[in-house]
């Protein structure tokens, strides 16, 4: 590899990882190696893809030779499990397999970045202290972020490399085939409302509709990850990374309804799968009628994820003081981010 800066992006095909790969390559001074179990479109340009199962320690060790020039690890892989203890065990094992296997020959390793999120503060559990600050005390619940953090701090002992973590909330971007994605799920939901002649109901609770929330653009998150990896002020630090503004669904909802050209409804509390039992068949018909990209609904939409986001009947607010004081000043208007991605999805024929 010609470049002095060589990134290994673990989880390179997910919403965070794929947008990070794109941002690193666009900088021009990074070579990028990506890891995911699936190869996708494979390697091209300054990008080399390794199809590796991070749960398989042998496969991770076998990739060590290809990764000996890696200078920066960006860890954005994630394995979901129903049981939090199992989830913690699995996600620490994957991180360990990368550091102790895949990077065992990377003697020039300088930085390890972990992608976490506001679940660190219990944003998925109920009301928490807001605005959440990076040094707020941990909760008593099991959380794989805590276990990965403890592992990385302990693993760093005796090594020259430094670490940092970022904590986004509702990452917005396009990641087809990885539907842990608010934007593509919402795009599919709105398009189906229009196709079915239904109002654009808010499928969540009244409390959520009226609470304060926040989001993180995937491109902004990628910039923040590169910043934390390169700026020594970020060494061994955690940072909340959000667009920088806050919003309420009740204010955003009419704008989204206008985009889909359907009347805005209110909170129904009805899970989407219940409100739209035949969504898969309706979607296939929509794809044919509008000559959309030939993808099943499941490549874009994850109804349980959307239902989960629309049931947070409490404020989601992260403090951005620490990242701003440390030098990260990027900010985006979240309404414009939502509408911008929806337009891109329409332009690229993912939705009508
Ligand atoms: N999405 C959000 O809105 C959001 C919000 C806040 C925080 N976060 C955090 O951001 C981090 C990244 O999540 P994400 O949303 O980008 O996840 P994602 O879209 O589900 O992507 C996960 C990535 O990990 C890879 N992966 C999973 N299991 C693997 C395995 N055994 N071996 C190799 N690769 C594996 C997947 O590729 P393959 O399946 O092809 O292997 C994929 O590339 C997580 O810590 C998450 O909690 C996400």
Q: Can you describe this structure in just a few lines?
A:
39% of the residues lie in helices and 15% in strands. With 352 residues, it is an alpha/beta fold.
Descriptive overview:
The chain has 13 helices and 13 strands. Helix content is about 40%, strand content about 15%. By secondary structure, it is of the alpha/beta class. A 7-stranded parallel β-sheet has the order 3-2-1-4-5-6-11, with helices on both faces. The longest helix is centred in the first third of the chain and has 19 residues, at about 85-100. The protein is globular, with a radius of gyration of 20 Å. NADP nicotinamide-adenine-dinucleotide phosphate binds near residues 37 and 178.
Which short descriptors sum up this protein?
352 residues; alpha/beta; Rossmann fold; two-stranded parallel ribbon; binds NADP nicotinamide-adenine-dinucleotide phosphate
List the helices and strands and how they pair.
Elements: E1 5-10, H1 15-27, E2 30-36, E3 47-51, H2 57-62, E4 72-75, H3 84-102, E5 111-115, H4 144-156, E6 162-167, E7 171-172, H5 182-196, E8 200-202, H6 206-210, E9 212-213, E10 216-217, H7 218-230, E11 237-240, E12 247-248, H8 249-260, E13 264-267, H9 272-275, H10 279-289, H11 303-309, H12 321-326, H13 334-347
Parallel strand pairs: 1-2, 1-4, 2-3, 4-5, 5-6, 6-11, 7-10, 8-13
Antiparallel strand pairs: 9-12
Helix pairs in contact: 1-7, 3-4, 5-10, 8-13
The structure holds NADP nicotinamide-adenine-dinucleotide phosphate.
NADP nicotinamide-adenine-dinucleotide phosphate binds at residues 11-17, 35-38, 53-55, 76-79, 94, 115-117, 168-171, 175, 178, 180, 182.
